[in-house]
Amino acid sequence: MSATLQPLPSPPFSRRPRFVAVLGIATWLALAVAAGGVLEVKVDSVFLPALAAHRGFSYRVRHFAELHDLQSLHYQEALGFVCTALSGLGMFEAPPGVRPDFLVDFNYGMTPFALHRTIEILPVARQTGGGDPWGAAGMTAFIPVERTRVTCTKYLIVIGREYADVDRASDSSPRALWRVEASIEDETRMLRSYLPVLAAAVMGHIGTDSHGPTKIRLSTSDAEIAFIRATGVRTPRSTPGKQLAAR
């Protein structure tokens, strides 16, 4: 059985937002996340038991400088979240010089803002013949109202792959054992605030097959999210990948 999973996408930072009105909404939602609330997370997970069985629990993270600045605190914080999520499942990063049981690739980012337009039909009371608009002499009309919503998607993708020597070009694309993609679409650009939530969603779906995208609801006060938030930044331990094997 072979894995035919989609590769990691490049971070889609193709343009800057142009909607000034979104800033106030983003600030309000960020405060709501910090204070505790419920977020809807879309999760898409794939698990290949025939490949993933008896692979062990030690891993090595592959880092791709073409995707992220490996020395930035943002990347090291995201790496810490991913490693903490894996540790919650009993997995651990293999010490230097020790062959791991499998490899881990991960990517995260935000999409550009997208404008969504919907038409709603709303009832409106109209007065006829001088009567009470809400009484028998009134008439109800239905008018279309356009609603607009500006959103962007924050995502985290984590893939477990068969172990291969990342310094050998022939092993640059090892087969995937499992893959989990978690994303949140709303009006904010607060990726950092959402990464622990996305990591918790990933932690809860490794080893499962969702058979397509599914939506779950997570509270920002959940114990799993607090567990992941408690981690600090982590300096990349593994040698950066020489090729974009994950793309």
Task: Describe, in plain words, how this protein is organized in 3D.
- The protein is built from 5 helices and 8 strands; from the N terminus they run αβαβαβββββαβα.
- The chain has helices at residues 22-35, 49-52, 73-87, 191-203, 223-229; strands at residues 38-47, 58-61, 92-93, 102-110, 114-127, 138-162, 176-186, 214-219.
- The chain starts with 21 loop residues before the first helix and ends in an 18-residue tail after the last helix.
- α3 runs parallel beside α4 (191-203) and α4 crosses α5 (223-229).
- It is elongated, with a radius of gyration of 23 Å.
- Strands 1, 2, 3, 4, 5, 6, 7 and 8 form an 8-stranded mixed sheet that branches.
- β2 (58-61), α3 (73-87) and β3 form a beta-alpha-beta unit.
- With 247 residues, it is of the alpha+beta class.
